Amino acid sequence: MATAPAPFPDDWQRALVVAAHPDDIEYGPAAAVAVWTAAGKEVHYLLATRGEAGIAGLSPAEAGPLREEEERRSAAVVGVSEVEFLDHSDGVLVADLQLRRDLAGALRRHRPDLVVVMHGGDTWTPPEVTPGALNSADHRALTRSLLDAVADAGNEWIFPDLTEVPWSGVQYVAVHAVGYPPPHVVDVSAGVETAVASLVEHRRYLEALSDDPVEEQARRQVDMATLTEDGGRQVGFRLYWG
User: Fold this and answer.
1) Domains and their CATH numbers in the chain
2) Which candidate among 47, 90, 200, 202 keeps its CA 20 to 30 Å from the CA of 30?
3) How many CB atoms lie within 10 A of CB 10?
């Protein structure tokens, strides 16, 4: 028998949500972010790329600035005012020392208690369920590198060329969970509509994906990202100690 999910811990104040591309957060845990900021939590976003390779028919030089602006507007909807881009190349992220270094530096700058990252498994189905649609190579590389960078950020002898002061204050690392039941959940019933509005801000990107109205696409995606339980809505995470 599956164990019932546990409530997500609340003994933290500052979070850094890390993703590979603009729209990743909105397709995932944005409803949780909306709930957290409404409760007075401080949340920052960190994007590894600008998503410049994400719109068919639109050159990276055009798509990058457009998608960055969409992400900043989207973040503002859920109460996030600080969005940092590391400017790695979209589509070809590599889990190497350079990415780890850049992530460690960002963790030292933002000094989060909680780090949130997107699902980085090989497929979009839970590991115990096969087969499944393949996950993005960028997502896999970013999640693996981020988990390593949490430790790197606190070690003064790793990446000694970084100028930021080491940060060992990460209490939790939360990986957005796929499948049900997840180990930990956030009740996001009050954040669903805000999350839909946040994803709608990625209008140009969504228009390129489908002829369906943007608002319908956004609601469909948020519905898939928020589990329904006893009439409420939840976002699931796998939680690790920092």
Assistant:
1) 15-241 (3.40.50.10320)
2) 90
3) 10
